[in-house]
Amino acid sequence: ALFISAPASGQGKTTITASLARLLHRNGKTVRIFKFGPDYLDPQILERGSTTPVVQLDLWMAGEEWCRLELFRAVSKGKADIILIEGAMGLFDGTPSSADLAAKFGIPVVLIMNISAMAQTAAAIAVGLRNYRDDFTMIGVIANYCGSNYHAKLVRDELPDDLPLLAALKRTDAVKLPERHLGLVQPSEMGENFTEQCLIAGADLLEESGILTHIDRLKHVTFHPPSQLIDTTTISSKQLMGITIAIAKDDAFSFTYTANITLLKDMGASICYFSPIHDDSIPLEANALWLPGGYPEVYAKELSGNINMLLSLRSFHKEGNPILAECGGFLYCMETLIDLHDNTWCMTGLIP
């Protein structure tokens, strides 16, 4: 297992984690990725790298025992050869932080650093972060955005022997994923071929760096089942048996947690998906609706122009069917929405 962290956001954690997963996958490994913290966007990229669903781990939202159970399941049920966990923001940011999760489960940390504007100072920062606390283990550094082999050498020579440079990745646009407000652009918007080519290029860079040698030397981390049983009474009772929940899923609405959908299925619900942008109506079999967050402000024109879907939603609501709307989905339920260019568009009008 490996916990991939950084001094801050914008260092390349998601791209490198997904690329490493792709490299391991094409070398025959079963890889399971987790994302630390309540993130909707990074897991979409990470899933492309590992080819398996990504679950978020958060000690505050879900609790230690639930996190322990998910890690144990990944190995025992998912048969993962290696677990990768991508941290959030900087190593010590937040309460709890990435370092807290790594320390709790004894997962070694690798520090990713964007060294484009520094050299030997990168080593000083890495050593400082490693020594800030003594309850976790940092095993090495990945230098991202290296200008040359000599640039990487300046960092490597300043790092202590017990904190080696595991990989030095050159600057290239071939692995650069576009960003906007809230984070990375969704793979569906970039195009699957673009995302795939980025992951292939990233995996190639990592392989050329020789990182697999270090991965092979990783010490085994044992994940144990929870020390106390998690109450599954409400799950086993199948309270949602016979209920079909339609979930909005397209470029405008995609902010869902895999764990929540799994829970709904465990409780007996059937799940189907629909696109408020492209489809004409809510699925006929649906008797409940979930409108999650996303980017309705980016696709306000398309949402407003799909008159048939607006009418279908209004009819569904008028019939008294339950609707869960959150974040961007809640905005979709308003009468109007102002987009990023100050244009006003009609929405469903479910909430006057």
Automatic annotation (TrEMBL):
Residue ranges occupied by any CobB/CobQ-like glutamine amidotransferase domain in the UniProt entry: 244-352
Pfam families assigned: CbiA, GATase_3
Protein name (Swiss-Prot/TrEMBL): p-loop containing nucleoside triphosphate hydrolase protein
Protein species of origin: Fragilariopsis cylindrus CCMP1102
Required cofactor names: Mg(2+)
Matching NCBIfam families: PRK01077.1
Keywords per UniProt: ATP-binding, Glutamine amidotransferase, Hydrolase, Ligase, Magnesium, Nucleotide-binding
UniProt keyword Nucleotidyltransferase present: no
Molecular functions per Gene Ontology: ATP binding; cobyrinic acid a,c-diamide synthase activity; hydrolase activity
Superkingdom of this protein's organism: Eukaryota
Record-annotated CobQ/CobB/MinD/ParA nucleotide binding domain positions: 3-182
